[in-house]
Amino acid sequence: MCTAGVTKEASPVKQVTDDDVNASSRCARPNCLRPKKKRKKSYVVEEPESSFIVEAFVGRYKKFVGGQGVHEEYLVKWHTYDYHEATWELLENMGLTNPGPLLDAFEQEAETQGIELNDGTEVVLFKEAADAGWTTDRLFVKHE
User: Fold this and answer.
1) pTM beyond 0.90, yes or no
2) Which Gene3D superfamilies match (predicted)?
3) Residues 6-35: tens digit of each pLDDT
4) Domain limits for position 2
5) Same domain, yes or no, for 65 and 128?
6) Which of the 8 DSSP states describes residue 120?
């Protein structure tokens, strides 16, 4: 029975069960006068099922795009993934709200490894990425 006092047998809707009536926020009758529940607005941002966490930037490539300036691609080491699963990503396409800490860590690690970060378009790879099989052609070559 819905809260308006009508049983499922009196409803013109066929094959409605008590569970359907009780679980629903609406009565099973098409013209029920029972007030509808107001839906609460959800402010929770749903993350897509395929979201990944950036562990670190382990390489960089700057490319000049005509009319758009410099685009920086970073070799991204993803959290819980091996180096062979790292990917080259444009900084602006990663959707990072605050890439500052990752960029700072990248610059510090480059300094630690003695890598000069200049304004050129050369590929920069950290030792662990190169040891894993990444090349300056931005390709992964599996070591055997």
Assistant:
1) no
2) 2.40.50.40
3) 555 554 555 555 555 454 455 666 666 666
4) 1-35
5) yes
6) S
